[in-house]
From TrEMBL, chain A:
GO terms for molecular function: RNA binding. PROSITE patterns: WD_REPEATS_2, WD_REPEATS_REGION. This is WD repeat-containing protein 75. InterPro entries: Beta-prop_WDR75_2nd, WD40/YVTN_repeat-like_dom_sf, WD40_repeat_dom_sf, WD40_rpt, WDR75. Residues 340-663 form the WD repeat-containing protein 75 second beta-propeller domain. Keywords: Isopeptide bond, Nucleus, Phosphoprotein, Repeat, Ribosome biogenesis, rRNA processing, Transcription, Transcription regulation, Ubl conjugation, WD repeat. Ribosome biogenesis factor. Part of the small subunit (SSU) processome, first precursor of the small eukaryotic ribosomal subunit. During the assembly of the SSU processome in the nucleolus, many ribosome biogenesis factors, an RNA chaperone and ribosomal proteins associate with the nascent pre-rRNA and work in concert to generate RNA folding, modifications, rearrangements and cleavage as well as targeted degradation of pre-ribosomal RNA by the RNA exosome. Involved in nucleolar processing of pre-18S ribosomal RNA. Required for optimal pre-ribosomal RNA transcription by RNA polymerase I. Component of the proposed t-UTP subcomplex of the ribosomal small subunit (SSU) processome. SSU processome is composed of more than 70 proteins and the RNA chaperone small nucleolar RNA (snoRNA) U3. GO terms for biological process: positive regulation of rRNA processing; positive regulation of transcription by RNA polymerase I; rRNA processing. Pfam families: Beta-prop_WDR75_1st (PF23869), Beta-prop_WDR75_2nd (PF23769).
TrEMBL record, chain B:
It comes from the Eukaryota. Residues 343-446 form the U3 small nucleolar RNA-associated protein 15 C-terminal domain. CDD domains: WD40. One of its GO terms (cellular component) is nucleolus. SUPFAM superfamilies: WD40 repeat-like. This is U3 small nucleolar RNA-associated protein 15 homolog. Keywords: Nucleus, Repeat, rRNA processing, WD repeat. It is found in: Nucleus, Nucleolus. It holds the Pfam family UTP15_C. GO terms for biological process: positive regulation of transcription by RNA polymerase I; rRNA processing.
Amino acid sequence: MVEEESLRVVRCGGSELNFRRAVFSADSKYVFCVSGDFIKVYSTATEECVHILQGHRNLVTGIQLNPKNHLQLYSCSFDGMIKLWDYTDGILIKTFIVGCKLHALFTLDCAEDSVFVTINKEKPDVFQLVSVKLPKSSSQEVEAKELSFVLDYINQSPKCIAFGNEGEYVAAVRDFYLSVYFFKKKTTSRFTLSSSRNKKHAKNNFTCVACHPKEDCIATGHRDGKIRLWRNFDDEKKYTYTCLHWHHDLVMDLAFSVTGSSLLSGGRESVLVEWREAAEKNKEFLPRLGATIEHISVSPAGDLFCTSHSDNKMIIIHRNLEASAVIQGLVKDRNIFTGLMIDPRTKALVLNGKPGHLQFYSLQSDKQLYNLDIIQQEYISDYGLIQIELTKAAFGCYGNWLATVEQRQEKETELELQMKLWTYNKKTQGFVLNTKVNMPHEDHITALCFCNAEKSENPTLVTTSKDGHFKVWILTDDSDIYKKAVGWTCDFVGSYHKYQATNCCFSEDGSLLAVSFEEIVTIWDSETWELKCTFCQRAGKIRHLCFGRLTCSKYLLGATENGILCCWNLLSCALEWSAKLNVRVMEPDPNSENIAAISQSSMGSDLFVFRPSEPRPLYIQKNISREEVQWGVFVPRDVPESFTSEAYQWLNRSQFYFLTKSQSLLTFSMQSPEEKLTPTSKQLLAEETLPTTPFYFILGKHRQQQQDDKLNEALENELVQLPLTENIPAISELLHTPAHVLPSASFLCSMFVNSLLLSKETKSAEEIPDDVSMEEEKESVDSDEENNFTEEVQDTNNTDLGKDIIHQLSKSEEKELRKFRKVDYSWITAP
Amino acid sequence: MAGYKPVAIQAYPVLGEKITQDTLYWNNYKTPVQIKEFGAVSKVDFSLQPPYNYAVTASSRIHIYGRYSQEPIKTFSRFKDTAYCATFRQDGKLLVAGSEDGGIQLFDISGRAPLRQFEGHTKAVHTVDFTADKYHVVSGADDYTVKLWDIPNSKEILTFKEHSDYVRCGCASKLNPDLFVTGSYDHTVKMFDARTNQSVISVEHGQPVESVLLFPSGGLLVSAGGRYIKVWDMLKGGQLLVSLKNHHKTVTCLCLSSSGQRLLSGSLDRKVKVYSTSSYKVVHSFDYAASILSLALAHEDETIVVGMTNGILSVKHRKSEAKKDSLPRRRRPAYRTFIKGKNYMKQQDDILINRPSKKHLELYDRDLKNFRISKALDRVLEPSCAIKTPEITVSIIKELNRRGVLANALAGRDEKEISRVLNFLIRNLSQPRFAPVLINAAEIIIA
């Protein structure tokens, strides 16, 4: 563990994958996408993230393959740098410093040593396309200041610029005109749509542009859903265009296939349309892609397409319009009504996902585990439609039950409300609808909570509503001689002086239920549903309510809208303490007495961690975020940390995540971000994705033999010192942690195998630096055919450095173990 | 990618009795045929052999009815006093009956005069039965005795005097020729073994026992008396398995369905109740006009015959299922067209491409999938759908409203079509469950 530095707020995963067009590698094995400050490299076959290229200090805005070397990738960023990467190894090769904000990046085969970038010079809305000459130099960081201007007053989005016919011209669109710059003639032609002069129904703004790879043909997409194909544009008088119309809403992106025989278009309908031979009647569809298509890209090999969607998803599509892989990040383009929850089974973060869905998002692997379709209705994506919203959800009984509430309100008086209760099915490993309750209340449901007490034999759910009632729902036996069945029925309806019920909360042991009615908190006995006592502070409506836990279970906390935090003692039925704090989020830690409260002030959001027993906070972190924090949640740690410092002890058992208004998911961390990444599994994946060609078989065998020989040699020399399994922390953790809190087996497997590797700690200190780089190099090329050669080189190196025999051993050992890794583990993860 | 999601049809709870497979089964009888007898019908017994005739004991007569006949095909009326408990032998050739004067008469079905007469009881014989070997008759009488008779020489073999009150019901085991059970007004049910000259098991019912029934396996005994029906496990030496109290008045008769899965009981409260023999829960019940004294089920539950105190015999026949099949069926493609290519085994270098299984969609769903909104609305407004299942129509209207195209779907209709919409609205607008959706639709039409 690193020594405890100050606690920092870090962004944790869930960055946008759909910010820019994805780029395929030349062999279509990898697909790259920008993701916040990083570039992610995904395998197209396994959907797994293979590398994360990090180095930019701001949002990455464009990536392109190096036209001269297909194993290299250019990227540009807001931080004014263009970086060249080796994506197979994830290594930064070069950095070119341009110095101004770069908005988009383009490369051309014919433009030898220059790339094109979009910059904005003077005014905030005026963008220019410039070409940047990349100086040839051997140093790592080069200044590239030689900019030559190409086009002015263009659109910021890279979708609005396209290079055509092997770089003879560049087409850019903005508002109502298309401008084409010819590199040879160095002239710009500008074409305007005739009807655009009539400003009244000017809906035919240009939205995107694509150029035919072989012919002189430009395709433009428009806001009214039309696609225009421009020809003869080298003559400003004789140009013609034809129109293709299928989309009924704006065309989000266009792409020509590699041969130019077909044109792909997509839009808000979430249907990928393929226009064959640019004819209106020859079209193919791939419908129901789930969300608006933001970008379309085509692999240079021509066998794959990739669509990026507004719900933070990329779909790899086969040439025959068959979706083959889905890379799904955290869906973030919608309002989060349900708040953050933790699925007690998978420990996944659960929140609103796609329209009508709950998403289960793994915090560890930054990946969406699955989507649960709650509303189960066809999603119609028309703008202005009032959709059914999933407003509330809660887990109960150790993840055995899930309650969801959906609503749709078209007019003031017409409210459609539905509550659904889902049971976890062990066979299918998913949630199955059990009970559907129409109009459980007459008005909006404000809160729902399960009784999660250990001893409670009968699952109980409480809902509170603006109609002034709270209802208690219990699970009842609905079975007869024909079938076994359980269902939920209403057991009790309570109210208090016709006030709106705003919040509810069960005590830890389930014996008491607290329901807040506007300013008043009522305590009910959960056995008899009798009103026990009421608390009233006259300090505004109660916004949050929660019981203390463990040793503090005699306290009840309530936060009001007027910015008062109250703590009542349930034994004396009196106010214990109160504090002035404008609480936005109040979350109890399930593993300790601690409660986290986030308050909102004009400066930003502040975090307070306290125990109900005393009004003094344990920990304060000011200004955790500029924005308003909307939701927060404690996530139990799989392995408890051991912070010794008193201020950080609240993070020992659980980690705190919170979501701001702009929907960035943040957490607290003391580690540097590099440490958090576990690159082990990724290299594994890269190796696995290699096809088993006959060549590989021959070479593989040869290699194996070699390794065996080496191993035997080693065995003769000295006995292998296998580490004692008891001493390895990873194994002891594995064995001593209860099975239900362990992460998935696939995650553990690589950790476990790694733990069996002999540690390299035996190395002397001065050897370490160059050794590590060698090691890396070796691992990355390990599966390459030229491996034999490098290995030999390495061996000689090793002897030169005077390595002792034990290190040699560990190397061969490592190889041996890597062979084991190649063994198919899929049976572990198979459902 | 996810396929089209069909419209969720709002299901509404059906009021009244829950429809189960039992209610369907037991309601699938025609309206009863009523036959007037001369007195209270004390016993109905079906022959186990085809043509499954049944003997009805009422007053001093025994009538034999054919399966569908309303008139008796045969009558035995040689009784000086009331006859009791006319019972067929297992082969359906002989019939035995007790009588008020203490005599027992054995008839050949084809003959008229009694074949044998067993004299020995001093009081009315209310129960007689054939043993499993067909050559003996068991009888119980009001003189508290139970006697075993030999048919060939019409001799009394054994007499059991263990009961201390009238013996009113009895039943012989169907498997063991030596075992039989009798129930008496002394509240006990006794199982006798002809080999030991005494009762082997005696159970205390608690009420005067009106009827006993042995399960075909002989392992379970059912006794009825008072308001109670009790089930006893004979293999555990007469342990009480379950006690049922579902009738309001004395239970008078018991009967098993042909499958043995259901137990029927008739009572003076004019009800017949059907129990499941696995859970002993009431799964169905019938109402009759008068107190029920006797009950019998024909082979395969084809007929239910109930005899009542007012002398009415109610006969219910099962509805024939052949009727549905009488329509000439369209010739369907041969079996081989369905399996064509399905049994092809994958060769080594073949690539298997699975065609995604097609999900069945309702016609309106198909229209909605292709955005044919007016057509979808037309389809659910057709009388067959709009009258029978208005909830589907309402759900489609709701869905169109959700999609924001309800006004478009309602637009451009001629007089005939709009009147159809209006008729539907008028018919269903008053129903509170449909009102919110339909008021909205009505507003669009008016506007």
